[in-house]
C-alpha cells in the first residue's frame, strides 16, 4: 500500500493517476457550489455553560435551530486551549511525516483494530481512490495511541478528553432543545460513561495536481451523535444545505460540529445528519482532525419514545452502534446510503 503523500513526494507527479479520478465529482450530484459562503450558525459555548438561565435558554434555542436547519454549527469561546489545539495539529503532521514503513505497522484490516493508518476510505470497494491519507484511533473507552512521534500520545489523550467534555455539554443543550431533560441523551446513550465510544480521525489531503478530478472525501454523513472537527488554516470542507454546497471557512480557534446518523435515528428524524465532503487543492497540504462521539459499541440506538409522535410513528429501525459502523465500513461512502437501510415506511 502506498500513501498519497508518498505519491506526491515522489517528484514525478504532473497529473492525477487514473485510479484517483472520480467520474462524478460535481457534474452528477446536481448541486450548486455557492461561491459566496453563507454565514453558518455559531454557538457561543461560554453561554451554554453560563449560570445565567436567560443566557443559557437563548443559546439552547440557537443550538436547536442549528441542528434543525443545518445539522452543522461552529463553536466559539470553548474551553479547549489554543496551545493544545496547535500541539495536536503539529503532532498529527509529525505522524504523517513518519517514514512509510513506520506508518505501515498500523495498516490493519479490521475496523476495530485500535489504530489504523491507511489511504482512501475502503480501497477494496472504492470505485476510485480518494486523495486522502488517514489515521484512525479508538481512544475511548480504551485509550490507544501510536508510539511515534514521541509526544503524540500525551497530546492526543488530553485533546480527546477535552472534546469528550465539549460533546457532553453540547448534548445537554441539544436534549433541552428537544424538550427533554438536560441529561436525557447523555444518559440514554451512556455518553458520559466509561464505556462510551470515541474515535479520533486525522485526515491528510496533500496538494493535488488536478483537484477538479479527485476528491478528499465524497459526499457522506458521519456515524455517531456528534463529530467535532478542527483543521489547519486551509479550507476544504463543504456542507450540503438547502440543496447547495456551502464552503466552510471557520473562525480562528473555533471548532466545527456536525450531527451524525445516530442523532437522526435517536431524534426520529427531527435533527438530521448533515451530508458533507472534503475537496482538495493544488497548493498545500490540508490537515483535518475529527472526533466522533457515540454510545458504547453494543448499545442499540433507536428513536427515543418521547420523540415518536402517534401520528408520525417510528421512522427508523434500531441497530447496534457496532453493527452500524461495520455496515458503513463495508460500503463506499455515498451520501446517507447507510442510514437509508434503517428507514421505515410510515
Strand order of the largest sheet: 2-3-11-8-13-6-5-4
Gyration radius, in Å: 19 Å
* SSE order, one letter for each helix or strand: HEEHHEHHEEHHEEEEEEHEEEEHH
Sheet/helix structural class: alpha+beta
Distance linking N and C termini:
46 Å
Work out the helicity level. 25-40%
Summarize the main sheet. Answer: 8 strands, mixed
Task: Give the low-confidence spans.
Answer: none
CATH architecture: Sandwich
How many strands in all? 15
CATH superfamily: B-lactam Antibiotic, Isopenicillin N Synthase, Chain
Percent in strands:
15-25%
| CATH C-level | Mainly Beta
- The overall average pLDDT, rounded, is 93
Count of spatially separate domains: 1
Overall geometry: globular
Count of helix runs: 10
- Per the CATH scheme, the topology name is Jelly Rolls
Amino acid at each position: 500500500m502506498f500513501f498519497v503523500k508518498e505519491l506526491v513526494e515522489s517528484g514525478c507527479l504532473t497529473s492525477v493517476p487514473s485510479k484517483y479520478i472520480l467520474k462524478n465529482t460535481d457534474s452528477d450530484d446536481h448541486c450548486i457550489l455557492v461561491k459566496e459562503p453563507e454565514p453558518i450558525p455559531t454557538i457561543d459555548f461560554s453561554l451554554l455553560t453560563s449560570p445565567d438561565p436567560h443566557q443559557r435558554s437563548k443559546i439552547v434555542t440557537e443550538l436547536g435551530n442549528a441542528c434543525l436547519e443545518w445539522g452543522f454549527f461552529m463553536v466559539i469561546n470553548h474551553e479547549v486551549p489554543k496551545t493544545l489545539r496547535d500541539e495536536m495539529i503539529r503532532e498529527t503532521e509529525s505522524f504523517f511525516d513518519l517514514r512509510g514503513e513506520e506508518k505501515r505497522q498500523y495498516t490493519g484490516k479490521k475496523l476495530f483494530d485500535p489504530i489504523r493508518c491507511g489511504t482512501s476510505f475502503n480501497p477494496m470497494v472504492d470505485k476510485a481512490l480518494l486523495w486522502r491519507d488517514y489515521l484512525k484511533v479508538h481512544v475511548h473507552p480504551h485509550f490507544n495511541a501510536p508510539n511515534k512521534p514521541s509526544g503524540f500520545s500525551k497530546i492526543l489523550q488530553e485533546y480527546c478528553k477535552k472534546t469528550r467534555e465539549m460533546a457532553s455539554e453540547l448534548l445537554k443543550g441539544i436534549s433541552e432543545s428537544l424538550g427533554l431533560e438536560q441529561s436525557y441523551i447523555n444518559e440514554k446513550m451512556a455518553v458520559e460513561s466509561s464505556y462510551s465510544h470515541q474515535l479520533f480521525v486525522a485526515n491528510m489531503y496533500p496538494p493535488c495536481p488536478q483537484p477538479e478530478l479527485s476528491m478528499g472525501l465524497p459526499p457522506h454523513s458521519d456515524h455517531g451523535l456528534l463529530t467535532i472537527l478542527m483543521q489547519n488554516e486551509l479550507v476544504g470542507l463543504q456542507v450540503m444545505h438547502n440543496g447547495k454546497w456551502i464552503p466552510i471557512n471557520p473562525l480562528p480557534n473555533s471548532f466545527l460540529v456536525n450531527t451524525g446518523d445516530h442523532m437522526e435515528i435517536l431524534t426520529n428524524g427531527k435533527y438530521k445528519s448533515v451530508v458533507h465532503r472534503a475537496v482538495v487543492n493544488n497548493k498545500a497540504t490540508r490537515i483535518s482532525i475529527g472526533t466522533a462521539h457515540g454510545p458504547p459499541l453494543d448499545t442499540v440506538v433507536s428513536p427515543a419514545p418521547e420523540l415518536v409522535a402517534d401520528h408520525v410513528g417510528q421512522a427508523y429501525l434500531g441497530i447496534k452502534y457496532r453493527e452500524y459502523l461495520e455496515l458503513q465500513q463495508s460500503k463506499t461512502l455515498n451520501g446517507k446510503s447507510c442510514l437509508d437501510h434503517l428507514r421505515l415506511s410510515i
